[in-house]
């Protein structure tokens, strides 16, 4: 066994990748261990990005810890976002959303879903920080009348309710893989007298 092996012999890139797997507050603690770690954390835009995200209670939803992908650009975008929050200085932008459907279904995680009896129109609102562009798509020609919808964009799930409950993939309009299907949905409404 070699007695010379230590963390100090590892290349900076490997230590940066190891630190990037930690939460921001733990990265900050590691930087306080010694000046070597402090230099590694201080010179890495990726690690600074994760520390700042954690300080303000944000999460990186990309799930990527690929060092080239998370660059100084994201860190500066986050800095501008935090400054805008602190100063209540907002960029105003307007988007015209066509309202061609009978019912406004739901707004969830930046997706507006509207529906009529046979189809669902989804509108992705743009998000500068996440690099999300405005887009629209239609999921349609269901073989049953649509009564209500629910969406969960984080799981790519659209639940379409009628007399039969069907789960459909939000982006590709195919049946969502589930083992047991509910054949019938009984909907009961409760109302209070005025």
TrEMBL record:
Q: Which residues form the F-box domain?
A: 4-53
Q: Which residues cross the membrane?
A: none
Report which superkingdom the organism of origin falls in: Eukaryota
The record's InterPro entries line, in alphabetical order, gives:
F-box-like_dom_sf (IPR036047), F-box_dom (IPR001810)
Matching Pfam families, A to Z? F-box-like
Return the protein name.
F-box domain-containing protein
Instruction: Please report the organism this UniProt entry assigns to the protein.
Output: Hydnum rufescens UP504
């Amino acid at each position: 066994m070699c007695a010379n092996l230590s963390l100090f012999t590892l290349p900076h890139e490997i230590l940066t990748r190891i630190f990037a797997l930690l939460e921001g507050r733990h990265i900050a603690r590691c930087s306080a261990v010694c000046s070597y770690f402090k230099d590694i954390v201080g010179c890495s835009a990726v690690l600074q990005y994760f520390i700042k995200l954690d300080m303000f209670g944000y999460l990186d939803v990309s799930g990527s810890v690929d060092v080239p992908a998370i660059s100084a650009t994201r860190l500066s975008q986050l800095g501008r976002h935090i400054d805008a929050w602190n100063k209540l200085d907002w960029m105003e932008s307007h988007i015209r959303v066509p309202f061609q459907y009978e019912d406004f279904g739901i707004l969830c995680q930046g997706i507006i879903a509207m529906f009529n009896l046979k189809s669902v129109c989804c509108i992705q609102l743009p998000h500068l920080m996440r690099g999300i562009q405005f887009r629209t798509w239609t999921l349609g020609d269901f073989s049953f009348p649509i009564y209500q919808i629910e969406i969960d964009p984080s799981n790519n799930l659209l639940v379409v309710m009628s007399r039969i409950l069907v789960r459909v993939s939000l982006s590709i309009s195919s049946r969502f893989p589930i083992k047991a299907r509910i054949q019938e949905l009984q909907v009961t409404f409760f109302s209070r007298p005025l």
